[in-house]
Amino acid sequence: MLAHSRAGVIKSATLRSLGLENKTIWRRCQPGGPWQRLLPGIVLLSNGVASEQQRVTASLLLAGPRAVVTGSQACLDHGLRRSELPDPEHVHVLVPHEQKTASTGFLTIERTVRLPDPSWRNGSPIAPLIRAVTDAARRLRNVEPVERLLIEAIQGGRCSPAALREEFDLGTTRGTALPRRVLSEVAYLRSPAEAAAKALSRRLTIQPSRWNVNVYDAGGHYVGCPDAWWDDVALAWEIDSVQFHYSRDGYARTLRRNTRYAAAGIVVVQTLPARLKTDPAGVIAELRAGYAAAAARPRPAVTWDQPG
Description:
By secondary structure, this protein is α+β, with helices and mostly antiparallel strands. Helices cover 41% and strands 18% of the residues.
């Protein structure tokens, strides 16, 4: 039976073809028995906790030969970091629109007229990354997990904001209002740390005017590109990683940048990414103090524009 299974997952119909009766399969899948029923008509030939891959295999066996895995599970299989993705509680698969298979248990089935050509990971057909990301985003209901997902997909050039927008436009509009809005806001964010900073900034009474803008001094010379910018008082917020700040070249660039800020009269608050989670109250207090200090002096004649 194991030889006819995929990683211990097998159809009840296959077991019957091997000579087992329905009552034998049923008895072995009862609590305390050696097997378990993962999905209707799909059996795991052990009674332990099913692995992630076994759940995917069971889903594909039930969904049919043209099914394609999408959503969070496909994002994981494409190599996006698990820490930045919503937990794939359900295995989300796409099937041809004419197919009538229904969602059940941990399997979410979505019928589509745009069935993608899959790539293969771990022996399973996986939707292209851009499709997987947009399918996952459409099923999220809170801003922060959508931000983390989109930033993780965009950074490193894995998915461009333009390609994600196009995929949202081509697919169903159901569930796209939130990810479309978040995508427009995070297109210029450069890392998950900036997404965390953006989420933290919502606790401020006065939130940043812009994110990732080029700032110029009174003579039109480039000063810097702060992660966040309060234009009314010319306050900059820089999220500086330890790796960047304490490398020889990074430290030198940080000194030159801070010197330009000081020469232009710009108040700057610097924050290590880890503190966004370990000391959010302290970061908020520093930003409020920085804003108060910037507001207490005349605003310098600095300007900004959005990077092209």
